[in-house]
Amino acid sequence: LQSLPFQKIQHSITAQDHQPTPDSCILSMVVGQLKADEDPIMGFHQIFLLKNINDAWVCTNDMFRLALHNFG
């Protein structure tokens, strides 16, 4: 991570939803905003699956996407 080109990252979570799955996991969706250095604020959404393995919650799947749109 230290080799990435930005120095400062800020984030704000604007919405989150969580629900159990039939196999005792937790499916979570997070929506928010991300700002790196002096770049414009970008929206993002992330979906991940948590599974309880030996009394510890482990992230078994994770999808992250910046909400980039080309309106030009």
Automatic annotation (TrEMBL):
Pfam families: NTF2 (PF02136)
Keywords on record: Cytoplasm, Nucleus, Protein transport, Transport
Alphabetical GO biological process terms: mRNA transport; nucleocytoplasmic transport; protein transport
GO cellular component: cytoplasm; nucleus
SUPFAM superfamilies for this protein: NTF2-like
Segments forming domain NTF2: 1-66
Localization: Cytoplasm; Nucleus
Record-linked CDD domains: NTF2
Job description of the protein: Has a role in nuclear-cytoplasmic transport of proteins and mRNAs.
Protein name: NTF2 factor
Source organism per UniProt: Hemiprocne comata
The organism's taxonomic lineage, starting at the top: Eukaryota, Metazoa, Chordata, Craniata, Vertebrata
